[in-house]
Amino acid sequence: MSVENFGNLEKADIVETARKITEEGPICDHCLGRQFAKISSGVSNDKRGEILKEVLRAKGEGLKEGKCWVCNGLFENLEACVSKALGALKEYEFDSFLVGTKVSGMLLENEELIWEIAGASYAEPLKAELNREVGKRIESETGKIADFEMPEVVVILDLWTEKVELQVNSVFIYGRYRKFKRGIPQTRWFCRECRGRGCERCNFTGKMYAESVEELISGSILEEFKGEDMILHGCGREDIDARMLGSGRPFVVEIKEPGRRKLDLRLLEEKVKEENEGKVEVTGLQYVKRGMVAKIKDVKADKTYRVEVELKAKIKEADLRDAITKLSGTVIKQRTPTRVLHRRADLVRKRKIYSAILVSFEAPISFLELKCDGGLYIKELVSGDGGRTKPNLSELLGAEAEVKELDVVDMDMDIHVFV
């Protein structure tokens, strides 16, 4: 390749600009060549720089020797950057990566100075060249691929500190959980008094409850991934004192900064079940992308509940059956329940009951099965919550009723959301 192949600019203009740049001091092939990166394609920046230097020498120009005044010898010592990056990466399992750079103030000043001489119209920034060259070498050494869309690991070259940082992107796993024990919340609840710091109210645990579905699953799988933390993103949530049965509640767990990314998820299902017998189990685990978190939060699910109701007055079975029949197919207007007003906006929401069935009647206890829109508060549907839910079972009976126990036995949703 010769200067004539650089593109549409006149050969003399290119050579003259290169001469002005080299007058400032020693410059490496990379930094000289990348000032003309956008003029032509099909050749590397260091090759461009090499050709321009040959032309200048042929014209009798005396080129200065020494450390590059633009990058301060950075490109002449690329292997040191690569070595640091490989050292940091060896602790992690990954298939794809990307390289990024934090440029120091001195190099930014040098970049501005050379652009004052050569102009920036055809130049490629230092960090773009560095990212590419280090990335090519990491690909060669590891056999992994550079991914510009969703890399599993981002290698950050910090030129301020001369260190390499890693941004290890999370692993996301979709599945369903079943909760067999009451009194377990879905996620960690920090103590309302100390907000996680620890106090007498929470027995210095920092938590409102000793364990959660999130913590139980995390305790079984986080160490396997060698991760720093795990977050559970659920498709809604059940009450603390409700069980989650049937096919289970869909969720996505996010494993933060995982050292490992490829585990047998069937074995993890068995581990969660074995270590949390009688409390929690998970099924259908599969690796998914980050976007699944938003999907699972947005999906609408119909729910089927098994409800144990205590009647506070003597009610005939026929009257109870009639009241339940009136609820079936009804749209319920439900103002935010009193018990959750501290964390939910005070709004009136409309939710439909698709079917309501009396399963058994043994006064004063009855068992109902309700299929309804997600988001309907069942306890308030039964009690009425002081008239905030209309219609409600207590109102239809003309007598007080309340939920003693509650189970979610099915969640019906569009499975295509999860394909």
Distance between the termini: 51 Å
- Spell the H/E element sequence: HHHHEHHEEEEHEEHEHEHEEEHEHE
Per CATH, the architecture of the largest domain is 2-Layer Sandwich
The count of strands amounts to 14
Mean pLDDT: 92
Largest sheet composition: 10 strands, mixed
What is the 3D form? elongated
Strand content: 25-35%
What percent of the residues sit in helical stretches (DSSP H or I)?
25-40%
Q: Measured on Cα atoms, how large is the radius of gyration? A: 33 Å
When the domains are counted, the total is 4
Structural class: alpha+beta
CATH class of the largest domain: Alpha Beta
CATH topology type of the largest domain: Alpha-Beta Plaits
Count of individual helical segments: 12
Write the layout of secondary structure elements.
Layout: H1 11-23, H2 29-33, H3 45-58, H4 78-89, E1 96-102, H5 105-118, H6 126-142, E2 145-146, E3 153-158, E4 163-168, E5 171-179, H7 213-225, E6 229-234, E7 242-256, H8 265-275, E8 280-288, H9 291-298, E9 302-311, H10 317-327, E10 331-335, E11 348-362, E12 365-373, H11 378-383, E13 389-390, H12 393-397, E14 401-412
Parallel strand pairs: 1-2, 1-3, 7-14
Antiparallel strand pairs: 3-4, 5-7, 5-8, 6-7, 9-12, 9-14, 10-11, 10-13, 11-12
In a few lines, what is going on in this structure?
The protein is an alpha+beta fold. It has 12 helices and 14 strands.
